[in-house]
C-alpha cells in the first residue's frame, strides 16, 4: 500500500499511529454497539436484544460446530468478540478513511497485516496452549506433529506455520484489496487527492463504482469475519481433540 | 523519548501487536461484564423457562386427559345407571300392573261370585216365601172352598153316592 503512516517509538517499540487510532475506534464502536444492543435484557426479547442474541447464537454455532464440548463453551465469548471486532474492523474502512496530507489516520485495522497476523498468532498460540492443557504435552505433541504417521512430522510443522500465515493473510488480503480498489475509484474522481482536483468527468462513474464496491465489500467483510472465526475454532479443535483413526 | 518516524514500512510496528492484544482483552472483559453475562444469562433463563413451560404444558395436558377420561367414564356409568333405573322402573311398573290387574280380576271374580250367591240366596228365599205363600193361599183357598161348599145337601148327596157305591160293590 502506498498509504504512509506516522510511526512513534515508545519503550523501544514501534507504534503505528494509524493503527492505534483505528484499533481504538474499532474497539470503542464495537463496545458501544454491543453495550447499546444489550441494554435491558428481558426473558421476552424485543428488537435489538433479538438482534444481539441472533449474533450470539450465530457465533455460538460456529464454535459448537467444531468444538461441541467444554472447550467450546469457554471459547464462546472469545468467538463472539472476535467476530464483532473483525466485522466492525472490516466495515470501518469502507465508511471512514481519514487522510491528512500524506498520512492516513483512520482505516480498517484489518487492512494492516500487523493486526491480522497478531490476531492469527493469538488464535494459533491459543490453540496450541489449549492443546497442551487438555491433552498433556506428550499426547499434544503426538497429536499435533506425529499424526497420523510419525514420518509426517516435517509436513505437520510446515502445516502449523502455513495455517497461521493463511489465517492472518486471508483476512488482510481481502480487506486491503477492498480498500485499494476504493482508493483507486476515489482517485478517478479526485486525481490529485484533493477536493480542488475534482474531475467531473470521472465523478459519476467513480461514485457508481464506489457504491457497488462498498456493497460488495460489506459482504466480503462479513464473510471474512465468519471465515476467520470458523478457521480459528477449527484449529483449536485440531489441537485439542485427538482424532480416532 | 518520542520520535516520529515517517518512513512507513521500514520498521515492524511491534507495539501495535501489544496494543491490539491489550485493547482486545480489555474489550473482551468489558463485553463480558456489560453484555455477554446478562444476555447469555437471560438466554439460559429463557431456555429453562421454555423447557419448564413445555414440561408444565405436558403435565397439564396429561391432567386434562385424565380428567376427560374420568368425565367420560362418569358419563358412561351414569348413562348405564340411568338405563338400569329405567329398566328397573319398567319391571316394577309391569309387576305392579300385573298385580293390579290380577287383583282387580280376583276381586271382580269374588264380587261376581258373591253376587251370584246372593242372587241364588235371594231366589231361594223368594222361592221359599212363594212356596209358603202358595201353601197359605192354597190352605186359605181350600178353607174358603171347603167352608163354602160344605153344605148339608151336598154332604148328603156325597154320602149317598158313597153308600150307593158301597152297596153296588157288595151286591156284586
In brief, what are we looking at here?
By secondary structure, chain A is mainly α. Chain A contains 7 helices and 4 strands. The termini of chain B are far apart.
How many strands appear in the DSSP assignment of chain A? 4
Continuous helix count of chain A = 7
Largest sheet of chain A: 2 strands, antiparallel
Low-confidence stretches of chain B: 1-9
Morphology of chain B = rod-shaped
Number of separate helices of chain B: 2
InterPro entries (chain B): ATP_synth_B-like_membr_sf (IPR028987), ATP_synth_b/b'su_bac/chlpt (IPR002146), ATP_synth_F0_bsu_bac (IPR005864), ATP_synthase_B_chain (IPR050059)
Subcellular location (chain B): Cell membrane; Endomembrane system
Membrane topology (chain B): Single-pass membrane protein
Keywords (chain B): ATP synthesis, Cell membrane, CF(0), Coiled coil, Hydrogen ion transport, Ion transport, Membrane, Transmembrane, Transmembrane helix, Transport
What does this structure look like?
The complex is a heterodimer of chains A (245) and B (172). With 245 residues, chain A is mainly alpha-helical. Chain A has 2 domains: 1-39; 46-241, no CATH class. Chain A is 72% helix and 6% strand. Chain A has helices at 17-37, 47-66, 70-95, 113-135, 137-145, 153-189, 200-240, and strands at residues 7-10, 13-16, 98-100, 103-106. In chain A, helix 6 (153-189) runs antiparallel to helix 7. The longest helix of chain A is centred in the C-terminal third of the chain and has 41 residues, at 200-240. Chain A is globular. Chain A starts with 6 loop residues before the first strand and ends in a 5-residue tail after the last helix. Chain B is an all-alpha fold and 172 residues long. Chain B has a domain at 16-127. Helices cover 91% and strands 1% of the residues of chain B. Chain B has 2 helices and 1 strand; from the N terminus they run βαα. Chain B is rod-shaped and about 210 Å long. The N and C termini of chain B lie far apart (218 Å). Chain B: The chain crosses the membrane at residues 17-36. Chain B: InterPro entries: ATP_synth_B-like_membr_sf, ATP_synth_b/b'su_bac/chlpt, ATP_synth_F0_bsu_bac, ATP_synthase_B_chain.
Amino acid at each position: 500500500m502506498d498509504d504512509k503512516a506516522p510511526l512513534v517509538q515508545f519503550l523501544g517499540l514501534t507504534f503505528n499511529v494509524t493503527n492505534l487510532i483505528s484499533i481504538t475506534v474499532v474497539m470503542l464502536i464495537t463496545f458501544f454497539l454491543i453495550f447499546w444492543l444489550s441494554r435491558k435484557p428481558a426473558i421476552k426479547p424485543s428488537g435489538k436484544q433479538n438482534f444481539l442474541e441472533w449474533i450470539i447464537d450465530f457465533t455460538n454455532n460456529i464454535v459448537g460446530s467444531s468444538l461441541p464440548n467444554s472447550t467450546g463453551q469457554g471459547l464462546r465469548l472469545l468467538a463472539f468478540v472476535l467476530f464483532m471486532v473483525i466485522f466492525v474492523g472490516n466495515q470501518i474502512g469502507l465508511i471512514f478513511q481519514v487522510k491528512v496530507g500524506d498520512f492516513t489516520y483512520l482505516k480498517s485495522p484489518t487492512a494492516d497485516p500487523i493486526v491480522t497476523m497478531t490476531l492469527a498468532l493469538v488464535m494459533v498460540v491459543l490453540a496450541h496452549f489449549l492443546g497442551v492443557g487438555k491433552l498433556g504435552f506428550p499426547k499434544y505433541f503426538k497429536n499435533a506433529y506425529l499424526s497420523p504417521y510419525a514420518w509426517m512430522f516435517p509436513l505437520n510443522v510446515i502445516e502449523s506455520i502455513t495455517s497461521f500465515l493463511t489465517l492472518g493473510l486471508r483476512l488482510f488480503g481481502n480487506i486491503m484489496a477492498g480498500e485499494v480498489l476504493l482508493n483507486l475509484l476515489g482517485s478517478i474522481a479526485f486525481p490529485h487527492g484533493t477536493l480542488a482536483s475534482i474531475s467531473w468527468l470521472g465523478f459519476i462513474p467513480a461514485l457508481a463504482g464506489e457504491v457497488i464496491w462498498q456493497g460488495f465489500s460489506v459482504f466480503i467483510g462479513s464473510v471474512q469475519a465468519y471465515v476467520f472465526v470458523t478457521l480459528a475454532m477449527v484449529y483449536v479443535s485440531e489441537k485439542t481433540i485427538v482424532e480416532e483413526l | 523519548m518520542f520520535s516520529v518516524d515517517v518512513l512507513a514500512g521500514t520498521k515492524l510496528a511491534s507495539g501495535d501487536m501489544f496494543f491490539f492484544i491489550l485493547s482486545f482483552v480489555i474489550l473482551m472483559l468489558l463485553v463480558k461484564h456489560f453484555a455477554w453475562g446478562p444476555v447469555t444469562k437471560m438466554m439460559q433463563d429463557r431456555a429453562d423457562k421454555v423447557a419448564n413451560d413445555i414440561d408444565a404444558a405436558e403435565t397439564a395436558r396429561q391432567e386434562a386427559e385424565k380428567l376427560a377420561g374420568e368425565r367420560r367414564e362418569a358419563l358412561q356409568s351414569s348413562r348405564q345407571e340411568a338405563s338400569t333405573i329405567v329398566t328397573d322402573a319398567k319391571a316394577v311398573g309391569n309387576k305392579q300392573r300385573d298385580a293390579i290387574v290380577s287383583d282387580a280380576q280376583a276381586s271382580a271374580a269374588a264380587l261376581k261370585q258373591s253376587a251370584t250367591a246372593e242372587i241364588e240366596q235371594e231366589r231361594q228365599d223368594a222361592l221359599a216365601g212363594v212356596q209358603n205363600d202358595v201353601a197359605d193361599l192354597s190352605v186359605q183357598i181350600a178353607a174358603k172352598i171347603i167352608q163354602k161348599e160344605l153344605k148339608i145337601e151336598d154332604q148328603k148327596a156325597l154320602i149317598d153316592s158313597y153308600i150307593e157305591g158301597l152297596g153296588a160293590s157288595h151286591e156284586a
